[in-house]
Amino acid sequence: MSTHPLTTRNTNSDTSSTVAGEARSNLHLRFSPSASVMLIQAGSTIVCLFLAHVAAHPDLLLSMDRRPAGQFCGHLLCHVIMGQMDEHILGLSLFNITLPNTRTKLASVSLFEPRAHVEQCKSPLINATGYIIRNLGHLALGFQNMVDCLNGSFLCQLDFVNVSGQPDNIIKSTSPADMCDHSGIDHRLDRMFVALDNLAVGFHADLAALQQESSDVRQILEALLGSVGFIDSQIQRYNGTQQK
């Protein structure tokens, strides 16, 4: 009876030794010098391919700062650095895509029109700056319309000539959903409510001034009517005297 547990322990010990030997053999195979070299080469190849992929694509950045600054309630920036010297920028364009299935052009800058151009219908509400220098492009807008700043969704389109000499384009968009911090929106809402309050105060002041003017006009009309009545009574009196 006492030998059975001992036999079991010896069997387990032999099995454990076999498993440990196989593990050491596998470990030796995995981390042999030739395998390490292959892993390093594979890693280097992946890094090179990744860098080549990144370098082969223009780096197009689009951001919307919805915090008020100065006379503008928000700023939209589209910036690009080309990945290859053989690629050339043709132009940058910014669009309003707030309404579904619509793309309203706001402004643009191009190799053939190096100064930023704002679409005529948007000129009073938007200020634009921009430039294109070979493989570097920049287009920035300042908004004065609170609706654009609070709810606007925008798209930037880069038109360029790729390394094959063919025209190509890349687009990137941004919306209010991209914002992680809503404190800026709360601040703008506070400003909007203050502006509405100021408008209400101005309206009430204008209404009071109009009511005063109306009262003055009424007094003048009453005075004129009184004068007309007096003149009419004098005419009737004169006519009665002439009849006698």
What can you tell me about this protein's structure?
A five-stranded antiparallel β-sheet has the order 5-4-3-8-9, with no helix packed on it. The chain is elongated. The chain is of the alpha+beta class and 244 residues long. It is 48% helix and 27% strand.
Name the CATH superfamily classification of the largest domain. Immunoglobulins
What's the total number of strands? 9
- Lateral strand order in the biggest sheet: 5-4-3-8-9
Low-confidence blocks of residues: 1-17, 23-32, 45-55
CATH uppermost class of the largest domain? Mainly Beta
CATH topology of the largest domain: Immunoglobulin-like
- Principal-axis shape equals elongated
Compressed to H and E, one letter per element, the order equals HHEEEEEEEHEEH
Radius of gyration, in Å, reads: 40 Å
Give me some keywords for this one.
Immunoglobulin-like; alpha+beta; 244 residues; 5-stranded antiparallel β-sheet; 4-stranded antiparallel β-sheet; 9 strands; disordered N terminus
Give a topology summary.
Elements: H1 3-30, H2 33-55, E1 59-65, E2 74-81, E3 88-96, E4 104-110, E5 117-118, E6 126-133, E7 136-143, H3 146-151, E8 154-161, E9 167-174, H4 183-243
Antiparallel strand pairs: 1-2, 2-7, 3-4, 3-8, 4-5, 6-7, 8-9
Quick synopsis:
With 244 residues, the chain is α+β, with helices and mostly antiparallel strands. Helices cover 48% and strands 27% of the residues. The longest helix has 61 residues, at 183-243.
